[in-house]
Amino acid sequence: MATTTTRCAIIGGGPAGFTAAIYASRANLAPILIEGPQPGGQLTTTTDVENFPGYPDGVNGTQMMEDMRTQAKRFGADVRMGLITDIDFTRRPYALKLDNGDTIEAATVIIATGATARYLGLPDEEKFMGMGVSACATCDGFFYRKRRVAVVGGGDTACEEALYLSTLAEKVYMIVRKPFLRASKVMQKRLEDRENIEILYNCNTVSLYGGEVLEGAQIVEHAGTDQERRFDLPIDGFFLAIGHTPNTNLFKGKIDMDAEGYLKVNAPSTATSVEGVFAAGDVCDPIYQQAINAAASGCRAAMDAERFLLEA
Ligand code: NDP
């Protein structure tokens, strides 16, 4: 039950957290970074990252995060595993309680806990993760050139993913549970112009099938009605676009957030509603949600923390 004091605690071990750690270490803040339940963050659930500048041949997502961790440690960042169970923002320094009983007392806190893509909860989603199942067309679409893919969801994200995939894949199905799309009209209009996109309305996915890799999905149309019909949809890729959930449970009632639970920041700074507490990456970004953006905002958060300490 040790207590450690730091000038900067960073919560989250994805691109935002590690970039913040690199900058904070180099600014002599001697940060402590706490990696959460998914070390490396969402990039470890993708295969190769090919859109992060500086890697002309792409890089494995897990390897990229390992490299960021090594880089942060090289400058002295104290990287720890653990789950934060409670934070006290009513006292200074702020007190972060860890699941092993330890406490970290921090003059500043950078929250980089990310967001979690929503999945349907099918038993085979996990089995085919990275082998056909993905929640990011921008990350993984390239691997499905001239193949058949499906996108689940009827919102703007699903439409964007379908449009993007339609430039690569031979055929794109959209699996939409309602008889209409929730997406904006302008987005719907764009879909109409793409001949290789087919929208399957009133459809839900029952299960996925395949051997080593995904081979198809079992679909039910008009479930629970007289018109109910079940059929197999042969596909190589199954993309979830049913939204993300920001990982902000710990901060409910403590830091201002929007209706979806994303932390509010005073852009262009990364300052949250609590003095000396900054946010970076997907936890405060419902729109772009790309590693490069997360890394960039991690840099900004570290610089904001440094300036805050200088002025304090
Ligand atoms: P949304 O919440 O808008 O849409 C989620 C979609 O997933 C809905 O069609 C929903 O269906 C469907 N869905 C949810 N759960 C399930 C489930 N269990 N099974 C099947 N389908 C399911 O999320 P988005 O990520 O699309 O968008 C988030 C926000 O970001 C929105 O405000 C959007 O407008 C914005 N955005 C804007 C963009 C732009 O303007 N370029 C691009 C991307 C996002 P149902 O409709 O039946 O509830």
Number of strands: 19
Question: Radius of gyration, rounded?
Answer: 21 Å
How many helices?
A: 7
Q: What does the largest sheet look like?
A: 7 strands, mixed
Question: Whole-Å distance between the termini?
Answer: 29 Å
Tell me the structural class: alpha/beta
Overall helicity: 10-25%
Beta strand %: 25-35%
Give the oligomeric state.
single chain
Small molecules bound: NADPH dihydro-nicotinamide-adenine-dinucleotide phosphate
Name the shape in a single word: elongated
Which parts are unreliable, with pLDDT below 50 for 5 consecutive residues or more? none
Mean pLDDT, as a whole number?
Answer: 94
Order of helices and strands: EHEEEHEEEEEHEHEHEHEEEEEEEH
